[in-house]
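Milestone M4 deliverable, item 7.
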Amino acid sequence: MDRAEVVVIGAGVMGSAAARTLGERGVDTILLEQFRVGHARGSSHGAVRIFRLTYPQADYVRMAMRARASWHDLEQRAGETLLVQTGGLDFGPGIDECAEAMTQCGLPGEWLSARQAEERFPVFALDGVGRVLWHEQTGICLADRAVAAQVRLAREAGVDVREETPMSAVRPDAGGIVVETASGEIRASVAVVAGGGWNTWILEAALGTFAEVGEPLPLEVAPRMVPTVQDVSYFRSWDPSAEWPVLIEWLEHMWYAAPSGGGPGIKVGRHMAGRPVDPTQGPFDTLPEFQRDSSEYVRRRCPGLDPEPVDAETCLYTMTADEDFVLDRVGPLVVGGGCSGHGFKFGPLIGEVLADLATGRGPDLPMERFSALRPALEQAFAV
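Output delivered:
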């Protein structure tokens, strides 16, 4: 039986960040990934994710400020650019709440009229829009490169990274845990569960296993983190030299456009939970109706783009009922997940939080918001 102090389950942005942090702190760690690092079956693949400080909740604004510092630390350690500041335009219902929360945190943006925004960035059309909030610290995370960098740094710090190693069970063992895999068992003090769309399944199985041997976990039910499929499209800019900031329209289902960051084109998507899915079975095909909707949005808001998509892909959102994350320790299990489509930007910071929880430190965050025991997690996300 292999041994480690901590086993991290899942090598997406959260799991790789936790493993890297643990390794750099000198903690004997094994990182398990059921597929290959960078696979397209989860939530962390693709060229870019948006980094923004525009949140209507001051808690998240403060977290994003700290995450920005964590990204810069990661870049320094990795020796490469992973967070690109492009600036961003936010508008629509709800933006006033974002502006208020940001002002509370000492990060006021610049208000522009729609015409001023169009003059500065003629790639957009803002007909019918009132004022627009410009924030220069908005940008993009280079997603694939960031995950790869974190895994590389984890290996360099001594973490045992095991790809194509799915786990089958977690069970208690002499005050710690045993993680069962097809290639053998691993005994550790703590397991960090960062399995994305598989998290609820892992935790449900653990609840049953721990109860069977008379060591029940302090949970009545596993936190409900529902995997859903999210579609995104990519579009070609008519002018390759045009300047593209991030664009976010705060509707009921937020639309966004993000610079390519080396991807196949400008990324356009709608922040909403898609159809619930079994992450093991799929389907993972893009929906033609979403492609039509995204092309229509491009025609309306992004005249700088050819409205015919050049590529499309899906990823998983793992949704909670309140769309807050789950960052908590439950017995010998540390849970990191439920990011509800807005967690990537916090990846390096969340890695630090999960490492703190795994080693008995108290993270300096409003942890009650992210508790695995909060009542909202007894409900499934309503699509």
